[in-house]
Amino acid sequence: MECVTHYMDCLAHIRPTLPQPADKARLHVFLASCNKPGLRLGEAAEAGYFSWEQPVFEPLKRFLQDL
């Protein structure tokens, strides 16, 4: 994600506005860097592009378990 942040910072210096919503744009930048850049979010998750053991995903996992 460090590279994604650098890319978005670079865009901020050369464009008057960044793509919105910014979080979605960051996700697309990340997915564009993967082996199969055209995958949708769910497909990327199934392909293992995300490490679900990271603490950042705990609230999402709790939400899904509570459904």
Summarize the structure.
The chain has 67 residues and is mostly helical.
Proportion of helical residues: 55-70%
**Rg over CA atoms:** 14 Å
Beta-strand percent range: under 5%
Distance, first to last CA: 29 Å
Number of H/I helices: 4
Main sheet characteristics: none
What is the H-and-E element order?
A: HHHH
Q: In terms of topology, how is this protein built?
A:
Elements: H1 2-14, H2 22-32, H3 41-46, H4 58-66
Please characterize this protein's 3D structure.
The chain is an all-alpha fold. It has one domain (2-66). The chain is built from four helices and no strands. It is globular, with a radius of gyration of 14 Å.
Notable traits:
4 helices; 67 residues; single chain; globular; mainly alpha
